[in-house]
Write a structure and sequence with these properties.
alpha/beta; single chain; 506 residues; binds magnesium ion; binds 1,4-dihydronicotinamide adenine dinucleotide; six-stranded mixed sheet
Length: 506
C-alpha cells in the first residue's frame, strides 16, 4: 500500500498525468511533414583526443600533484562515464599557489610592459583558436551541452575575450585608475566552464594582476587544458594558477589574507556566504542568479519572439544565469504564443551532445536534475497547466525535456526562484504598467528582454525594469565589449567591456 502511494507521487507519474493529450487547435501541415523527416546521426569525431588518466594542479607554471594525494572523477553527464580524474586542491596547495602568484606579481607581471602583457593574451587567444575543436569536444563531454553550442558559442567567445582584453592592456592609462590590485581569487561555475574562466582571467591579466582560479567540481577539465595553453603561450610561471576542488577549496581561496580580490560566479546562496567570509579588506564582485523576465507585447513580431523565447530558456539546457525563465505575455496573444511555442519545441532535438544535430544536451549533474524535478513537482502540485516535449530520452545520463508551465501567479516559487533548467514559467499581463510591475517583482535583477514594435514603449519599459542587461527585440546576445552583471540578489560588479576592466584596477 505504502509502495503504491510512493509510485503515485513519483515526479514521472505526476508529469505523465499532467502532460496535455488534447489535439492541437491549429493545423500546421508543414510541421507535421517536418516531424517525420529525421536526421542521420552525425557524431563529432573525438578519436584524435588523447585524454590523460589524471590531471594535476597548475601551480607556478607547472603541473603538480595535490598535497593530499586526492583525485576525483569527472563524468560525462550524457552517459555517466568517467572521463578522467582531477587533482583536488586543499590548504597546502592554496598556500603554494598564493606564494607563486605573489612572486609572479612582484617579480614579473606587475613590471611587464603593458604591450608585452597584450602579446601574451593574444598568444593565448590564438592557441585557443588552434585547439578549438578539441576544446569544444572536451567541454561537451565534461558539461553535457551540445557540440553546436561549444563549437559556435563557448569556444569562440572564449578566444574573443582574450583578444578583446589584449587590446586594452596598453590603454589602461586612459582610464580613471590604472594600477593592478595584486593576487586575485576567481571561483567559477559549471554552466560555461571555459568561457567563465576567460571572463575572469583575461581582464585580470590585462590589468597586471596574477590569478588563482578554481573551476567547478563537475566541470574542471577545460580549465586544465587552458592551463596547458597558458604554459604553451609562455606566460611567466605563477601568473595563472588553477586549483580544481569543491566548495571547501573555494572557501580557502576566499579567506586567504594575501588574496586581494574575489571574483565569483555561482549561486546567490554561496555569494552571500562569500561576502561574509571574505573580510572587509578584499574587493569583491559577485555574479549570481536570476529569474529574468522576457516580455512579449501584442504588437511584437511573434515568430521572431518565439525564437527568442526558445533561445532564452532552452539554450544550454536552461543552465544560464540570465535565462529568460519568466515569460510575460500580453493576455491577448497568449493562445497564439503558446501554440507557436509548442510547435517550435517539437522541433528541438534532444540527445547525444556530441551529435552535430543536437539542440539540447544533458543536464549537468544528478543534483541539478533533482533540483529541476523538485521545482516541476511544486508547479504540478500547485496545479498549473504543464507542457513537455514528448520524446525518447537516452537510458543513461541526466535528461530533462523542454517544458513550460502556463497561468502561473507571480508569487509561486516557480515564478520567483531560479530553476536553472529547461523549464519556462509563463505569466500574463494586460498593459505596460502591469508588465513592469511583474517583471520587477523578484529578488533578482540580472537580465530582461522586451519585444515590441513600438520604440517609445520599448524605451519606457526598459527604463522601468531593474536589471543589469536589457535585450531589445532579441535575447541572450553576448559580446566581450558589453558589460554584464546584476542588481539586488543577482550580485554586484560588472564583467566584460570597460566596466569589467575597472573591477581589476585600483
Ligand atoms: P555553487 O554556487 O555552489 O557553485 C559555484 C562555484 O562556487 C563552484 O566552483 C563551487 O565549488 C564554489 N563554491 C561552493 N561553495 C563555496 C564556498 N563556500 N566558498 C567558495 N566557493 C564555493 O552552485 P551549484 O551548487 O553548483 O549550483 C546550485 C545552483 O546555483 C544552481 O541550481 C543555480 O540555480 C545556481 N547557479 C548559478 C550560476 C550562475 O551562473 N549565476 C552558476 C551555477 C549555479
Ligand atoms: Mg563533468
Amino acid at each position: 500500500m505504502i509502495n503504491q502511494n510512493k509510485e503515485e507521487n513519483k515526479i514521472e507519474t505526476l508529469i505523465s498525468r499532467a502532460i496535455e493529450t488534447k489535439p492541437y487547435p491549429l493545423e500546421v501541415p508543414e510541421l507535421q511533414f517536418f516531424q517525420k523527416w529525421d536526421y542521420s546521426i552525425s557524431l563529432e569525431d573525438s578519436s584524435f583526443i588523447k585524454l590523460k588518466d589524471s590531471y594535476d594542479l597548475f601551480i607556478g607554471g607547472k603541473f603538480v600533484k595535490p598535497s593530499s594525494g586526492k583525485y576525483f572523477p569527472t563524468i560525462n553527464p550524457s552517459n555517466e562515464e568517467v572521463i578522467t580524474h582531477i587533482a583536488y586542491a586543499t590548504e597546502e596547495d592554496v598556500n603554494k599557489a598564493v606564494q607563486a602568484a605573489q612572486k609572479a606579481y612582484e617579480k614579473y607581471w606587475s613590471k611587464t610592459k603593458p604591450k608585452d602583457r597584450a602579446k601574451y593574451l593574444f598568444k593565448i587567444a590564438r592557441i585557443i583558436q588552434e585547439r578549438s575543436r578539441e576544446l569544444a569536444i572536451l567541454e561537451t563531454m565534461d558539461n553535457g551541452k551540445p557540440i553546436r553550442e561549444t563549437r559556435d558559442f563557448d569556444v569562440p567567445q572564449t578566444a574573443q575575450h582574450f583578444f578583446y582584453y589584449a587590446g586594452w592592456a596598453d590603454k589602461l592609462h586612459y582610464l580613471p585608475r590604472s594600477s593592478p590590485i595584486g593576487v586575485v581569487g576567481q571561483i567559477i561555475p559549471w554552466n560555461f566552464p571555459l568561457l567563465m574562466a576567460a571572463w575572469k582571467i583575461a581582464p585580470a591579466l590585462a590589468c597586471g594582476n596574477t590569478v588563482i582560479l578554481k573551476p567547478a567540481e563537475t566541470t574542471p577539465l577545460t580549465a586544465l587544458i587552458l592551463a596547458e595553453i597558458i604554459q604553451e603561450a609562455g606566460l611567466p610561471d605563477g601568473v595563472v594558477n588553477i586549483l580544481p576542488g569543491d566548495g571547501y577549496t573555494g572557501s580557502l581561496i576566499v579567506k586567504h589574507p594575501e588574496i586581494k580580490k574575489i571574483a565569483f560566479t555561482g549561486s546567490t546562496e554561496v555569494g552571500k556566504y562569500i561576502l561574509k567570509q571574505a573580510g572587509r579588506d578584499k574587493k569583491i564582485t559577485l555574479e549570481l542568479g536570476g529569474k529574468n523576465p522576457l516580455i512579449i507585447f501584442e504588437d511584437a513580431p511573434i515568430d521572431q519572439a518565439v525564437e527568442a523565447i526558445i533561445k532564452g530558456i532552452y539554450f544550454n539546457q536552461g543552465h544560464v544565469c540570465c535565462a529568460g525563465s519568466k515569460l510575460l505575455v500580453q493576455e491577448s496573444i497568449l493562445p497564439t504564443v503558446i501554440q507557436k511555442l509548442k510547435d517550435r519545441i517539437k522541433t528541438i532535438r534532444i540527445g547525444n551532445p556530441l551529435d552535430k544535430n543536437t539542440d539540447m544536451g544533458a543536464i549537468n549533474s544528478l543534483q541539478q536534475l533533482q533540483k529541476i524535478k523538485g521545482y516541476v513537482e511544486i508547479g504540478l502540485k500547485e496545479g498549473y497547466p504543464f507542457y513537455q516535449k514528448e520524446c525518447k530520452l537516452p537510458e543513461k545520463g541526466y535528461w530533462f525535456p523542454p517544458s513550460f508551465f502556463t497561468n502561473v501567479p507571480i508569487n509561486s516559487p516557480i515564478a520567483r526562484e531560479e530553476i536553472f533548467g529547461p523549464v519556462l514559467t509563463i505569466i500574463t499581463f494586460r498593459d505596460p504598467e502591469e508588465a513592469c510591475q511583474k517583471a520587477n517583482n523578484t529578488p533578482y535583477g540580472l537580465a530582461a528582454g522586451v519585444w515590441t514594435n513600438n520604440p517609445s514603449r520599448l524605451m519606457y519599459v526598459s527604463k522601468k525594469i531593474k536589471a543589469g542587461v536589457i535585450w531589445a527585440n532579441t535575447y541572450n546576445q553576448f559580446d566581450p565589449s558589453s558589460p554584464f552583471g546584476g542588481y539586488k540578489e543577482s550580485g554586484f560588479g560588472r564583467e566584460g567591456g570597460l566596466h569589467g576592466l575597472l573591477e581589476y584596477l585600483q
